[in-house]
Design brief:
Blueprint (H helix, E strand, L loop, with lengths): L1 H10 L1 H13 L8 H13 L3 E4 L8 E5 L4 E7 L13 H17 L1 H4 L1 E7 L8 H7 L8 E3 L2 E3 L10 E10 L15 H15 L8 E8 L10 E10 L2 H22 L2 E6 L11 H13 L20 H5 L4 E2 L2 E3 L10 H6 L3 H23 L1 H12 L1
Parallel strand pairs: 3-4, 3-5, 5-11, 6-12
Antiparallel strand pairs: 1-2, 2-4, 7-9, 7-10, 8-9
């Protein structure tokens, strides 16, 4: 079976690499990935999949299906890029891997009793596309789900942090900063007080908790007391429960900015909260065997918890559906995701090999689950409950 799956991916190798490079040349931001979504969908249509676009009211989401078996396997493609950095998280590779794994599984779908579903999932970097799709029922009935993400090293049971993606707006009163500063209420000062409070909070964070942000809007001119400012902040933690505790403490810091300066403030969720990533142990074991068969040496299972991925909306899926989200290592010269050098590395020969290896190993992991009577029964039963 492994050789057959690899043969399918090898047959499509040139097209998969061309797709990865094409997406890389044309980066698109969250919820605006119209060209990218279409390119990925068309690659699946060419492979015999039936594609439904505009899934659950999202313009750049789709599902492509092949096979009619009772074990429904979901393969996820991402394709949104980062502002100013393009595909510095390698979503061009993720999409190509998903297409390759989907094509390979479709080839054996009748033999293994599979329905293969490749999902185009927008807005992972911000916006929570998978969370919206999950909440709106797009993944209902899936027995298992998975994708492969590039990174500096191979990690099978990759972990991620829960995330709150927030915008904090302060409203004050404009005035002349020299002639009548006493008539103003300085929303810029509110930002300063809030960030000082957040900086002091860092000393008392629980292990695994993080917070970091930027001033997105700080004022218009030095001689105008700013009446409108905005912070963008990420809060992260090892679990949703820990994130909730951090949220409460950070919100007090945001409120302090308004209270100290006489301004009002409002906190808005830019994205729905991301849960921590919880990979399925059996699927992870199957992927480990498959990726080792490709000549790779992923880090040891006992070291995986120290290689956190940041945050991903795949975490929410993993809490509802048995899931797999390994990283495929590429040679980025020491660069890590969200750095320009990593973006450049995502179309290197190392990345092209990662597309092939990731697609084969992901397909092998799902095929192994389908062929194992006990695991197949577990996954099908869970999907029906």
């Amino acid at each position: 079976m492994a050789r057959r799956l690899a043969a399918v991916v090898d047959r499509h190798r040139a097209d998969l690499i061309a797709l990865s490079h094409d997406l890389h040349r044309h980066p698109e931001l969250a919820f605006a990935e119209h060209r990218s979504s279409a390119a990925v969908a068309e690659a699946l249509v060419a492979g015999g999949f039936q594609v439904t676009r505009n899934v659950v009211g999202l313009d750049t989401a789709f599902v492509a299906r092949a096979g009619t078996g009772d074990l429904r396997v979901g393969v996820f493609a991402e394709y949104d890029a980062l502002p100013g950095l393009g595909h510095a998280c390698g979503h061009n590779m993720i999409a190509a891997i998903a297409v390759g794994a989907g094509l390979a599984l479709a080839e054996v779908a009748d033999e293994l009793g599979l329905t293969v579903e490749v999902y185009g999932t927008p807005a992972e970097e911000t916006g929570g596309g998978k969370v919206l799709m999950l909440e709106r029922g797009a993944f209902d009935g899936l027995a298992c789900a998975g994708m492969v993400h590039p990174g500096p090293v191979d990690v099978v049971g990759a972990r991620s942090l829960a995330l709150a993606d927030l915008a904090v707006e302060y409203s004050g009163v404009e005035s002349h900063a020299s002639a009548a500063p006493h008539l103003g209420r300085n929303a810029g000062d509110a930002v300063t007080v809030a960030q000082v409070a957040l900086g002091l909070l860092r000393q008392h964070l629980e292990p695994g908790q993080q917070l970091h942000g930027i001033v997105a809007r700080g004022g218009d001119a030095p001689n105008i007391v700013p009446a409108s400012t905005e912070l963008l902040y990420y809060l992260r933690a090892r679990s949703r429960e820990s994130l909730d505790r951090l949220y409460a403490r950070a919100e007090a810091c945001f409120a302090a900015g308004g209270l100290a300066t006489g301004c009002t403030h409002a906190v808005r969720e830019v994205s729905p909260p991301y849960a921590e990533l919880t990979p399925d142990p059996w699927l992870a074991g199957a992927y480990r065997r498959a990726i080792e068969g490709r000549g790779r040496t992923p880090i040891a299972p006992e070291s995986e918890e120290h290689f956190l991925l940041g945050s991903t909306d795949m975490g929410n899926v993993s809490r509802e559906i048995p899931s797999l989200h390994p990283t495929i290592g590429i040679d980025a010269g020491g660069a890590v995701t969200h750095q320009p050098a990593f973006a450049a590395a995502c179309v290197s020969p190392s990345a092209d090999l990662g597309v092939v290896d990731g697609a084969v190993a992901l397909a092998e992991a799902f095929a192994a689950a389908a062929a194992d009577e006990q695991q197949r029964a577990r996954l099908v039963r869970g999907a029906r409950e």
